[in-house]
Please model this.
Amino acid sequence: MAKILLLETATGVCSVAVSVDGDVAGFRENREGFSHAEFLTLYVGQVLEDLDMEPTQLDAVCTSRGPGSYTGLRIGTSVAKGICYACSIPLLAVSTLHAMAFEAAHNREINSLAPGLRYCPMLDARRMEVYTSLYDKSGNPLCEISAMVIDELSFSGELSEGPLLFLGNGAPKCKPILRHPNALFLDDFHASARFMSSLAEERFNKKEFVDVSYFEPFYLKDFLATVPKNKFF
Model:
């Protein structure tokens, strides 16, 4: 019976959960913006305390692989690695988009919206760009994750083949543009540590661990540090 700490920090949501044998047993989440540095370790302690569990009783830590916020993913990865080193337990990583699609596909109310429904989770990448990918009716990936600038022709081929559900914090800005009758939108569906439980359990059972020393999140885009034009001395 695996006890896995789940950390989701790829977006403005700071989310922590503990799964036991694939089921969520404890959970904390803040949706008020990028508060990961303030709340992440606090939530880890609270969730473990709720379950009367010590960190050493965990069997693994699973962190969000991304894509998403550079800073959020760095914080999540750093905390995950620190716990793994301190407790001598393995590290797992799950794609944020895959976890979202998998959750939607296995939610009876959501997957009943249309027969043969496929899923397109979107994470906001500013302006009209999103991080996205396509997933089948079971929540399995159909293509590679990419950064896409959305216009009226986006997903035209996929939409001609049947209903496609757009979800995530990048979907609302695409709703006025993607007007195909097969384009469905799910409101208020955000990345969450709760959605990682089944995929983390599957990876744990298959021993699909990542290297604690060398693992890096999947940013999709390179982080560019800028130098301010006005310098103060």
